[in-house]
Amino acid sequence: MLYYRDKGKGKVIVFLHGFLENSRMWRFFQNNLSKKYRVITIDLPGHGRSSKKTNEVNRMEDMSKKVNNVLEHLKIDDVIIIGHSMGGYVALAFADLYKYKVSGLGLFYSTSLPDDEIKKEQRLKAAEVVVKNPKEFFRLSIPNLFAPDNVPLMQSEIKTAISWAKHASLTGISAALKGMRLRKDRTDVLRNLDKPILLILGKYDTAIKNSELINKLEGTDHLSIFEISTGHMGALEAPEECLEIMEFWLNQNFN
């Protein structure tokens, strides 16, 4: 069973963290949204307080099944599911496998598009490098997720992100990288979901191809897109603005 934190009452929101993160990244959002909703945050396999034992490859489908195990344990069958980056890939896989359980889907600095060949090669190299020298990998890779202008101003937030990464197992990190490179295009999942969909994107996010994603989703019903002046780490770069967007979308669609 994955580690989870369950707070509040009402309509259920499930938050899934990104690569090198854990459920702590959602603490600000959970504390605020749990005043009106039941908010569940989950540590994905190999991350945070979930088991360090993991498969050699953690496919998005496999992780989504483990998320479903948590929900079955809690006897929950209707959720709004929101994922950051890798968590968004898992949320999409969940919506693909358990569409009947999803009443809303949020991609938080994430995409339905698969890796291109260059990105696939980069993930394989990263899977090798992180096992050999994790501290250096974290030190070099995590600041690049922030908008360039924010890096000198947000050293404390960068240290926070690095501290999250240290709670992931090296096998879990490697397995997640290998799983992300194998994920398929799930743009059709978004097009066919017929439920409210939220996209929060960063104007300076180099990890997500915003314009390509938006073009692919043109004409999709029930889609709300917000692009703000951050890099990939909106939960640390602009938490209040991101929360405000989420609350607006939730109020518009679920009240």
Order of helices and strands: EEHEHEHEHHHHHEHEHH
The N- to C-terminal Cα distance equals 32 Å
* Number of DSSP-assigned strands: 7
Largest sheet: 7 strands, mixed
Percent strand equals: 15-25%
Estimate the global geometry from the Cα principal axes: globular
Strand order of the largest sheet: 1-3-2-4-5-6-7
> Which residues sit in consecutive blocks of at least 5 with pLDDT less than 50?
none
Tally of alpha and pi helices: 11
Report the structural category.
alpha/beta
The protein's oligomeric status is single chain
Q: Approximately how much helix is present in the residues? A: 40-55%
Overall pLDDT metric: 96
Radius of gyration (CA) equals 17 Å
Quickly describe the structure.
The protein has helices at residues 27-33, 60-73, 86-97, 117-132, 134-141, 155-165, 170-181, 187-192, 210-216, 234-237, 239-254; strands at 4-7, 12-16, 38-42, 79-84, 102-108, 197-202, 223-228.
